[in-house]
């Protein structure tokens, strides 16, 4: 299944009489990490949720390759800024997702835990592990079933530098193994480190889309210039 390019045609979205996204049109063929950036309230998280199908849109608005969202939903997963975990052990959280995805392969969960380096916390209740460990467990849950697309909503914003570095390394490894990553971030240094492409939103509109290298080398309007200097 070839899920790229992603094409968005005339996407607008309002909630409670508030227009959050306004006539968005873009195409994305970047196979690795696309960063969705912008100031608070620009519509980043809403766009991510729409791309994942958590917020419904008409079929003709978003297309993944030759497929609609409903046809690729099984090949997508999402990691939220605040991890959503069950009040069970780390192992049980992963096992729950594996059951939902009808995965019966022997030792499958152990392989996932080794891959994310969380085997040592497998028998601890998820509510007692650290914030960085919770985010790693969330990512471990997201890769069960071998998704083609993973959405990450500011996955390191609440983490210390050690866990931030570890999560970034995991993201790089995923993107190098044919998983398309869409990620929101406020961290300019992080965007430089792991981003390949950037889509910049302002007030619900896409005002810039190019490779990250160009983003940091070109002249910009004051809005983006201030974002680069102070974000």
Q: Can you characterise this structure?
A:
The protein is α/β, with parallel strands linked by helices and 231 residues long. The protein has one domain: Rossmann fold (3-Layer(aba) Sandwich). Helices cover 34% and strands 25% of the residues. It has 9 helices and 10 strands. The protein has helices at 44-51, 69-72, 90-100, 108-116, 131-142, 161-175, 188-194, 212-215, 222-230; strands spanning 6-15, 18-28, 33-37, 62-64, 67-68, 76-79, 149-153, 180-184, 197-202, 205-211. The strands form 2 sheets. The protein has a 6-stranded mixed β-sheet with strand order 6-7-8-3-9-10, sandwiched between helices. The protein has a 4-stranded antiparallel β-sheet with strand order 2-1-4-5. Strand 1 (6-15) and strand 2 form a beta hairpin. Helix 4 crosses helix 5. The longest helix has 15 residues, at 161-175. The model has no long low-confidence stretch (mean pLDDT 96).
Number of DSSP helical runs: 9
Distance between the termini: 37 Å
Query: Which strands sit side by side, in order, in the main sheet?
Result: 6-7-8-3-9-10
Largest sheet, in brief, is: 6 strands, mixed
Strand content: 25-35%
Low-confidence stretches: none
CATH homologous superfamily title: P-loop containing nucleotide triphosphate hydrolases
Instruction: Identify the overall geometry.
Output: globular
Mean pLDDT: 96
- So what's the oligomer here? single chain
Overall SS class = alpha/beta
* Record field, number of beta strands: 10
CATH topology title? Rossmann fold
**Helix and strand element order:** EEEHEEHEHHHEHEHEEHH
Q: Percent of residues in helical segments?
A: 25-40%
The top-level CATH class is Alpha Beta
Return the CATH architecture. Answer: 3-Layer(aba) Sandwich
**What is the CA-atom radius of gyration, in angstroms?**
18 Å
> In the residues, how many domains can be counted?
1
């Amino acid at each position: 299944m070839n899920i790229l390019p992603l094409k968005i045609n005339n996407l607008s979205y309002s909630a409670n009489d508030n227009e959050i996204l306004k006539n968005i049109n873009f195409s994305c063929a970047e196979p690795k990490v696309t960063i969705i950036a912008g100031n608070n309230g620009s519509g980043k998280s809403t766009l991510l949720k729409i791309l994942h199908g958590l917020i419904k849109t008409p079929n003709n608005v978003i297309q993944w390759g030759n497929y609609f969202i409903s046809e690729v939903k099984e090949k997508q997963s999402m990691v939220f800024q605040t991890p959503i975990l069950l009040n069970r052990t780390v192992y049980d959280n992963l096992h729950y997702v594996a059951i939902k995805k009808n995965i019966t392969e022997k030792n499958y969960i152990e392989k996932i835990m080794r891959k994310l380096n969380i085997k040592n916390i497998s028998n601890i209740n998820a509510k007692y592990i650290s914030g960085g460990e919770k985010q790693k467990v969330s990512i471990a849950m997201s890769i069960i079933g071998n998704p083609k697309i993973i959405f990450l909503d500011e996955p390191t914003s609440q983490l210390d530098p050690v866990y931030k570095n570890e999560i970034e390394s995991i993201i790089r490894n995923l993107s190098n193994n044919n998983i398309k990553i869409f990620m929101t971030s406020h961290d300019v240094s992080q965007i430089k480190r792991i981003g390949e492409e950037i889509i910049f939103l302002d007030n619900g509109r896409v005002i810039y889309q190019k490779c990250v290298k160009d983003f940091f080398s070109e002249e910009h309007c004051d809005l983006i210039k201030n974002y680069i200097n102070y974000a």
